[in-house]
């Protein structure tokens, strides 16, 4: 089998993965890698919701232990988004860790034990492509099985958090014009903060929301507003009308008793020109030329506060090389044990300290810094960070 032409070998592997039942993707990958690539072991790890560990995909109870995202060989491949090879037990064997991602959305790592030397060098590119195929199939399979969603959990999600994670588009994505990364904390007990994005050939639309309240009420409010925004966007309406219709939907349901803050952007990919609606508390900071500054937009009313609010777009322009950080009040207003707010200065330092990281890594790094500022106190608000690296055309 190993002597098959390379193209045929890869095609065989790809067909095996695409033809597998949703809950049997790992079994299919393991079988074909053993047969076609002389693999001695195959495991799939999924990144947990907190982006702290990589969880093994297996039938409960798990037989493998989670591995750290921060200080493990698997975590190194996940963070760098490049294959990483280490020696494995056995004569001449190596373990190759391959990132499993879909259009920049980091899902996990595929670990394969193989003969070393020329053998692993001859098939590394194909294995990386198989890991990419597997990632796409996992995303499709999640419509029909809970296996991979269960594998992402190192703890139980609250019901509100379950609703919020199901509402999200992903945690990162990339295109030639931009790279996006986002993260929410506390990952297993989030309330109302949320982000959403959608792209066409010409535009990127981005929402960052901060819903009021706690628990299920906050999650329901955010679900209503985000789906109202999506409904208006998918109807082809411009940004101001999207805000107006979502405002009406929230007001009709809550009559002004609940409202939701949102920062909305529509970027033109060819030019970096953007239209913005600032309806509440999420803040925007920009790293340009080594300097961090807060971008002040004209504040307008949160969604649902009053009946039939009119929203006005403002213009903004992103330049190639800009890094834009969108943060909720659970970031810049969080207090230390001494009562000191995190604030602009600390946030600017965190942005500078993470300037060399890719966009997908930045939110996690900033939120880790925020945890150090907060200390042992239990967070009393969601913390949301979205990082947009503008590359331009």
General description of the model:
- The protein has 11 helices and 17 strands.
- Strand 13 (283-288) and strand 14 form a beta hairpin.
- It is an alpha+beta fold and 393 residues long.
- The chain has helices at residues 6-18, 25-37, 73-80, 118-141, 147-151, 159-167, 215-234, 239-254, 329-332, 343-353, 362-374, and strands at 41-47, 53-56, 67-68, 84-87, 93-102, 105-115, 172-175, 178-185, 193-199, 203-211, 260-268, 273-279, 283-288, 291-294, 314-317, 323-327, 383-390.
- The mean pLDDT is 92.
- The strands form 3 sheets. A 6-stranded antiparallel beta sheet has the order 3-2-1-6-5-4.
Give the helix proportion (percent range): 25-40%
Shape: globular
Total strands: 17
Uncertain runs: none
Return Rg in Å: 22 Å
Order of helices and strands: HHEEEHEEEHHHEEEEHHEEEEEEHHHE
Largest sheet: 6 strands, antiparallel
Q: Strand order, main sheet: write it out.
A: 3-2-1-6-5-4
Which quaternary structure do these chains form? Answer: single chain
Output the number of helix runs.
Answer: 11
Mean pLDDT: 92
Distance between the first and last residues' Cα: 44 Å
Beta-strand fraction estimate: 25-35%
**Which structural class fits the helix and strand makeup?**
alpha+beta
